[in-house]
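The record is given unchanged here:
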Amino acid sequence: MKKLSFLFLLVSLGGFSQNVTITKVIESDCSSPFVKTVELYVDGTVDFSTEVVMNYMLNGASWADNQIDISGFGVQSDKFLYIVRDIALMQAEFPSITFSASNTLVVATSTNGDDGYQIVLNGIIVSQFGKTETDADTDTIWEHDDSVVSRKSGVPDNGTWNETHWDYSGKNSLDGETACNGGSGIEAYLNGLGGTYPLGSGSGWTPTCGTALVDSSAVCDTTASGATDDTYTATLGFSGGNNGNTFTVNATDGTVGGDNPTSTVTGTITVTNIPEGTDITITVSDIADGGVCDLSRDIDSPGCIPLIINEVLFDPAGDITGDANGDGIRDALDDEFIELVNNSGSSLDISGYTISDAVALRHTFPALTIIPANSMLVVFGGGTPTGSFGSAIVQTASEGELNFSNGGDIVTVRNTLDDEVVVFNSSSAGVSLSDNQSVTRDPDITGSFSLHTDANASLLFSPGALASGAILSTNSFSENKLSIYPNPVTAGYVNIKSQTSEEKHISMFDLTGREVLNTQLSSNKLNVNSLKTGMYLLKILENNNILTTKLIIK
């Protein structure tokens, strides 16, 4: 459980990490013990003793009726293998190829030019030569008496029969060419044909999955103060869907919804009502429908508490104006700080929580660190913080310094379960960290980050206070009897009413954490007609009173 509330990852295209492909079938005119050969190519590492079954279709019988035991190959990796009747005869026909126990297996099964072969890897048919339950004598397109059949290069083998994926030397084309009957030998004949006919030639047979899992997120539905008393919603994006197969999408907890790659090319899978503290795995697979996509993504629970990073000072000014901790000394490390806000009407115990950046652990909150309702806490890098700091709780870094990077950093607060609760990521904040001032939310608590002088031209920072320098109100909207209706929204607008006539600052976020609306509301009616149907987080700030709630648009 170590992911943040908004988590973004990329995953490469999925496919088989191992595969076994039938690449050639040779049936010659040599007499007993015959030159009858099946060439395989192993992609990745495969244990033939436990993972592979080779079915043999005799005269059009069921695949399940006959098997050729090839467990003797053992563990093989990234190479061509040969199933033969006699090594000495093979060596005579292919004098430049070395056939040994490392690449060749002698079997007693005698096959003919009208028979088929099938490879089953870990219960999945991955390669097949021959039309199912059909004798090649009655379907002569793949009849291979005294001839060579070679799989075309660069055509993925999806485990089904398709005669267009093969090159045929022609029935009885080996008659008179074999060394056993006075000819130049099969090797010379295949070399003359060129292409993928020579042994050990060709590539590009392992199929890959064209569907990819992309951005994922985990967003708290609510933010009560406990470690497991909320739910969260996970989203997982995908591309390359609608490939003709039916996908099965499952999650280890919660309710699966949103888009499905069965019918959607690019979309988002949504899993709702996941208990806080419960990590999940989302699986996306078309294996049951004959596909090769078997994808998964682990998504860790966020820590859902009403804690907000409101202001961070990465770069104190070089003179005394950079003395953010008020101890009369400007120090590049001591005067750095991070300001947190308890954005709720109840006290918040963060004892044992930690602050880290991209490099190291920077601070562990001591026992009995309890932030009162709608109040702030400031952690300085060091020194002797002097002043009231708006009556905020003030601490100094337990590791001796914060040492945040002016060039870009990721500052993370984790709870005692090591869940990421809140994160400041400079790459997504889009604001300079090296302008001799802090970066602060504008407006406080609900806004995006900006330079402090853009929020208030007269202050370089305001630890423990709002950007204006004012003290955070401890009032809550529950006291002001705020009402929001209708919810769900069905007509393109929602009423937001309180007992005051103050202008309200409204911001809305989708379930990936992306801000989709930011506006000032002077009336009671908020127009949401431009937003798509779905669930959003609605944040309302009025005269330093704050409410965060879910809003559903239908």
Residues 19-193 form one domain.
